[in-house]
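Contributing new records

If you add data, match the layout below exactly. Sequence lines come first and carry their own label; structure lines follow with theirs. Keep one chain per record. Anything else will be rejected by the validation script.
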Amino acid sequence: MSRILHWTTFALLLLASFPGCVRAPSKQPYMIAQAEQYQRRGVNAFEQGDYITAKSMFENALRMYESVDNASGIVRTNINLVETAIRTREYEEATLYLREARDIASRNRLAAYQARAILLESTIALLTVDPERAQQLLEPLLPQFRGDTVPGNPDEITLSAIANRTWIAFERQSGQPDLWVRRFTNALGTARPKDPNLQGRLLRFQAQLAGRNGDFDHAHELLNQALANYKATLSQPGISVTLLDSGRLYVKQSRWVEAREDLQRGTSVRIQSSDKKGAADGLEMLAEVERKLGNPSVAVSLEQWVAVIRQDGPVDWH
């Protein structure tokens, strides 16, 4: 998935001075400085998996930028809010923030944000199970491949677009996942510097391919490598999804005890990061495993938790 934006800002107004005239200092540099401070706090909270605080800080930054009509700041902050909403699976909210970002960027000719906005829209389409739209959106972001290879040194947007396209290949019949995994492998191999989160994503794709081919041992080895990558960067979404991938793979093998352990670990990470919808998905899988283990009462209890979590409002986990 893509990295939160926190680019260095710069003053937009030059103070004019005239002989014999004294002006009050402009409030805009102060307001922008305050907005950037909120942005930094939001980014820090986002990277620590505290999406509630991240959203609050980004909303504060947005109000500051809007108060001085700073278009670039408004677009960047809306994009940060899109990223945050995606992490908490609020896809309708993410779409609204993205629409606002694209409208303002278009009106103010801020073309630098266009590629990231397209990438985010394709991600939302994939997460809402619309791979055809996701593929259409990605076409202008994908490089001209030479067989399995990408010429030059692909940037982060290009690599993320290839990652999304590889994801699509697994979602569609005759999607050629083998081809796209090779392309992603080669593209990431030439990239500088290396992004450990994209490397983790590649390892998960490779594990998925190995699992499809029945090579379960190799698939688990790859998932363990991906987990180590995500732990090195303290990526809570990466850690949780990799553990859940491992749990699903054990389910496919009918190894219910190991499946329960990894599903519990992955779901616990999602609970700690306030990912309610993700936690509910994990608990649903756990309930199925508990039934396979002959624990129907535990399964019912887990399903009751799922019903509570899927309701609006805060959840008391105790």
